[in-house]
TrEMBL record, chain A:
A Pfam family per the record: PH_RBD
Subcellular location, principal: cytoplasm
Protein name: TBC1 domain family member 15
Residue ranges of domain Rab-GAP TBC in the record: 326-536
Gene Ontology CC annotations of this record: cytoplasm
Positions in coiled-coil regions: none
UniProt function note: Acts as a GTPase activating protein for RAB7A. Does not act on RAB4, RAB5 or RAB6.
Molecular functions (GO terms): GTPase activator activity
Automatic annotation (TrEMBL), chain B:
UniProt xrefs under Pfam families: Ras (PF00071)
Catalyzed chemical reaction(s): GTP + H2O = GDP + phosphate + H(+)
Main localization (coarse): membrane
Subcellular location(s) per record: Cell membrane; Cytoplasmic vesicle, Phagosome membrane
Record keyword GTP-binding present: yes
UniProt cross-references to InterPro entries, sorted A to Z: P-loop_NTPase, Rab9, Small_GTP-bd, Small_GTPase
An annotated GO cellular component: late endosome
Domain of life, source organism: Eukaryota
SUPFAM superfamilies for this protein: P-loop containing nucleoside triphosphate hydrolases (SSF52540)
E.C. code: 3.6.5.2
Keyword GTP-binding: yes
One function term, GO molecular function aspect: G protein activity
Species name: Chanos chanos (Milkfish)
Designated name of the protein: small monomeric GTPase
Length: 665, 201
């Protein structure tokens, strides 16, 4: 452990494999799982691969010891390490234990008898190199991506296989410290050129903000002790890591952008040492097709789609015309119940009447629950008290300029309040989170009925639930997905945002949390939402709506050379200035543009729900897919299955997806 | 150097509904909007002012107060020059939470010397008749927690709002004077960024 300054982890990804079959023993095609990291060490950037070493019994998680390898203490990883007796380590340093436990849980389980259990056997596959010694990277795909590093001294390292995704994220992070440009002769090869070290170093010093420092804070963190579980800690780590990148923003970011002004010529993509090289992520999308929107669906249109018993016929067509033009206001009260899934499309009038009756009873039963809580009880129920207090405050601050909610003692306010309180009873774990009143308000406005509004809100919340959960995973996932889409659509703009430390698209937070509710006028929210609820023309259409808005703003942002703060301010101030039809038009057009592209990155296909073989029926898949985190995507699961069933049995990847730490993406 | 001014970052913290956005809007635009929404995400406004002959651009950051949004707002704490801890005099819980807000700020803002960091405490909504927190209680808390200046404000009728913000600026400038005596003059001062007020493209 001779390092003078502790290395800081810039990027880390688990589930990176080396196929350790050698020519001598090709029957031994062993999969070696490990971590790939990018580290900052004494001012140099290092890429490091380390195989996982330990078999971990999950029951030991809580007493994982302090000297275990962990995301925190990389200092010791460079040294030699013997096996550690896991079962006898009991530390009282709870914060550290929790941190360590996180890292331990992430280790895959190996089936004791395999040939790879010995530290020595595994550690011989570990490697690390300075990025400045890296000459090129081969990027290949075999259902998953794998990378091979070629060093300047002529050595080639064993290929690392990203069975669980993450190669793009790795390359993206590598791009922050080195320039990767596609070799003109070989599209699978990236030529690496290292940035001027002196410059990047001054940059580094300027930021004076390291991931390491943040993680170090765990020791002192007064909050960590109050965190209840591993998941919260993992989330915390995520925030710490991600946060640090965001945190560079503040004041330093402003100074940084000044400095960047000088640096940017050197950071530009298509030049420097290898002129004429293209950036790899560029995909030729082709022209944006013209699309036509149409008039809103009228009462007549709507009734035409119902049979005598009230079943909706030709739902596909109906959804299509709703997507294309929205609904006339008179249709909304009924149509929204179907769009939101409160009423099944194939139900009859009678069935719906029965359903409503049942749902009315159910609603009032739940309403009575909070209504009948005495003051005494409330005093002993801090969560209910907090929910109630915040609902009271927020109801008074939601759409008060709308006739339906304006003035004192407006009955609309009481309904808004009662429905939100009843929702707390419906889902007490989630309770009330700010933003939910914004989601309810338009629904109540359209329904003009407490019970119907409640159940439609429940349906809408099913889609939006993850946005509001403790971990805000839905928000994180969406921001990452949006970043992926934007990078495909407009690499130059994405690079600009990255350079302004805005690559995480933080400024889209409000857009995503409450689906543009605060961005467009109330009547336009109604239009936008009903269009999005059709689930057309692709999954996660709302992300393309974000892209469309950004597409209209990028020129301003780039020409005026906005930095982090200005971008945030500019985006915030777009509120109520956006033209809904223009946005919908452009979003659809972007969707068609992407759909027409033949060689879409897999990640993009997944986000938008485009299967490999385009199939119209799949375009109507529900929106719920959006809430899936990339780690638990069906694709990743499939790969894991392949891993398990590859017949070798030396390594079994248990599905510990659920506890995967989010910062790896 | 008459055309130069300092950029000061001030952050408003406190429970949801205590009036953070209203205070910011009152101070910057001198308006009070009864129909204001609760804040989602993070916003900020700039205001140029002159305090004791010094030109200052105040950048006021306003955040969502609910616990759930902590991970969203805390990254914005860094680089703050002053923190306005805000509660509402008609909401005792918001007063009781001041300590938590202070702790959260110090932790995430990565304040080097928490003991000398300029906090200012604002008891808002003094226009409301049903008080739950007395001025004495609030003053006592301020004395015991670091001798913070305390202002009883009303964003609604503009009581004391500019006084509070100006005091924040004075505090920052004062603490900066102290620091500048300690820092060798040739060191690059990353903390304070001189800015040209003259706008040019």
């Amino acid at each position: 452990m001779a390092a003078t300054t502790p290395p800081k982890v810039i990027f880390e990804h688990e589930g990176v494999f080396i196929h350790s079959n050698t020519e001598e023993s090709d029957d031994q095609d062993l999969l070696l799982s490990g971590f790939l990291r990018i580290l900052e060490k004494d001012g140099e950037t290092v890429v490091e691969y380390k195989p996982l070493e330990d078999t971990v019994d999950p029951s030991n998680m809580l007493c994982a010891g302090k000297d275990s390898s962990s995301v925190v203490e990389w200092t010791q990883c460079s040294g030699e390490k013997g096996h550690r007796p896991m079962d006898q380590q009991l530390s009282c340093d709870t914060e550290w234990d929790m941190v360590n436990a996180v890292s331990f849980r992430r280790k895959p389980y190996t089936n004791g008898e395999g040939g790879l259990n010995h530290t020595n056997e595994r550690s011989k596959w570990a490697f690390s190199f300075y990025v400045c010694d890296l000459k090129s990277i081969s990027v290949k795909c075999e259902g998953w991506s794998y990378l091979t590093f070629h060093l300047r001294d002529g050595n080639t390292l064993p290929a690392v296989h990203f069975h669980q995704g993450g190669s793009e994220a790795f390359l993206d992070n590598l791009r922050k410290c080195a320039q990767l440009s596609e070799c003109p002769d070989d599209e699978h090869t990236l030529i690496v050129s290292y940035y001027n070290k002196a410059l990047s170093q001054s940059f580094e010093n300027l930021l004076d903000d390291t991931n390491y420092g943040l993680v170090q804070k765990f020791k002192k963190d007064p909050y960590t002790t109050t965190l209840g579980g591993f998941s919260k800690v993992t989330n915390y780590i995520f925030d710490a890591f991600r946060g640090s990148e965001l945190e560079c923003q503040e004041r330093p970011a402003e100074e940084m952008s000044d400095l960047l002004g000088e640096l940017i010529p050197g950071l530009e993509i298509n030049q420097q040492e290898e002129p004429g090289f293209e950036v790899i992520t560029r995909v030729d999308l082709g022209a944006r097709p013209e699309v036509q929107r149409r008039e809103p669906v009228t009462v007549e249109d709507w009734t035409k789609h119902q049979d005598s018993e009230g079943r909706i016929s030709n739902v596909t067509h109906l959804k299509h015309i709703i997507f294309k033009g929205g609904l006339c206001h008179a249709v909304r009260k009924e149509a929204w119940k179907f769009l939101l899934g409160y009423f099944p499309w194939d139900s009859t009038h009678d069935e719906r009447k029965n359903l409503q009756k049942r749902k009315t009873d159910e609603y009032f039963r739940m309403k009575l629950q909070w209504k009948s809580v005495s003051e005494e009880q409330e005093r002993r129920n801090s969560r209910l008290r907090d929910y109630k207090s915040l609902i009271e405050k927020d109801v008074n601050r939601t759409d008060r300029n709308n006739k339906f909610y304006e003035g004192l003692d407006n009955p609309g306010l009481i309904l808004l309040h009662d429905i939100l309180m009843t929702y707390c009873m419906y889902d007490f774990d989630l309770g009330y989170v700010q933003g939910m009143s914004d989601l309810l308000s338009p629904i109540l406005y359209v329904m003009e009925n407490e019970v119907d509004a409640f159940w439609c809100f429940v349906s809408f919340m099913e889609q939006m639930h993850e946005n509001f959960e403790e971990q805000m995973q839905g928000m994180k996932t969406q921001l990452i997905q949006l970043s992926t889409l934007l990078r495909l659509l407009d690499l130059a703009f994405w690079n600009y945002l990255e350079a302004q430390d805005s690559g995480y698209l933080y400024f889209c937070f409000r857009w995503l949390l409450i689906r543009f509710k605060r961005e467009v006028h109330f009547q336009d929210v109604l239009r936008l939402w009903e269009v999005m609820w059709t689930g057309l023309p692709c999954q996660n259409f709302h992300l393309l709506v974000c892209c469309a808005i950004l597409d209209s703003e990028k020129q301003k942002i780039m020409e005026r050379n906005y930095g982090f703060n200005e971008i945030l301010k500019h985006i915030n101030e777009l509120s109520m200035k956006l033209d809904i039809e223009e946005i919908l038009h452009k979003s659809e057009s972007i969707c068609m543009q992407i759909k027409n592209c033949k060689d879409l990155p897999h990640s993009v296909r997944e986000i938008l729900g485009f299967s490999a073989v385009p199939e119209t029926s799949t375009l109507e898949t529900s929106e719920y897919g959006i809430l899936e985190s990339p780690q638990t995507s069906p694709r990743a699961t499939l790969r894991q299955d392949q891993l398990i069933s590859n017949g070798h049995g030396h390594l079994r990847e248990l599905s510990h997806n659920g506890c995967k730490v989010a910062f790896i993406s | 150097m008459a055309s130069r001014s300092s950029l000061l970052k001030v952050i408003l913290l406190g429970d949801g509904g205590v009036g953070k956005s209203s205070l910011m809007n009152r101070y910057v635009t001198n308006k009070f909007d009864t129909q204001l929404f609760h804040t989602i995400g993070v916003e900020f406004l700039n205001k140029d002012l002159e305090v004791d002959g010094q030109l200052v651009t105040l950048q006021i950051w306003d955040t969502a107060g609910q616990e759930r949004f902590r991970s969203l707002r805390t990254p914005f704490y860094r680089g703050s020059d002053c923190c306005l801890l805000t509660f509402s005099v008609d909401d005792n819980q918001s007063f009781l939470n001041l300590g938590n807000w202070k702790k959260e700020f110090i932790y995430y803002a990565d304040v080097k010397q928490p003991d000398s960091f300029p906090f200012v405490v604002l008891g808002n909504k003094v226009d409301v008749t049903e008080r739950q927190v007395s001025a004495e209680e609030a003053q006592q808390w301020c004395r015991e927690n670091g001798n913070f200046p305390y202002f009883e404000t009303s964003a609604k009728d503009a009581t004391n709002v500019s006084n509070a913000f100006e005091e924040a600026v004075r505090r920052v400038l004062a603490s900066e004077d102290r620091v500048e005596h300690l820092v060798p003059t040739d060191a690059v001062n990353l903390h304070r960024k001189p800015r040209n007020t003259s706008t040019c493209c």
